[in-house]
Amino acid sequence: MTATTLDIAHQAFFAYEAAAVEKQQMLQEMRKAWVFSRLVIRSLVDSDPRSSERLSRQIQQSGSSVWIRFES
What we know:
The chain is mainly α. 79% of the residues lie in helices and 0% in strands. The chain has helices spanning 5-47, 49-62.
């Protein structure tokens, strides 16, 4: 049995659709992680007012990557 152009087009469409669904799920997971990280940072800042200044300074110094170091 040979695949027709229509069969190949259907396969390509379903592969594209599956990739789109996977991308959407990945974006949702990234949003959840972002929200969780914001909650963690907010709770750290709220628990120690002095940490707010240290945290913002560390975020500014690190540029696009955020490294949080806990100081006692």
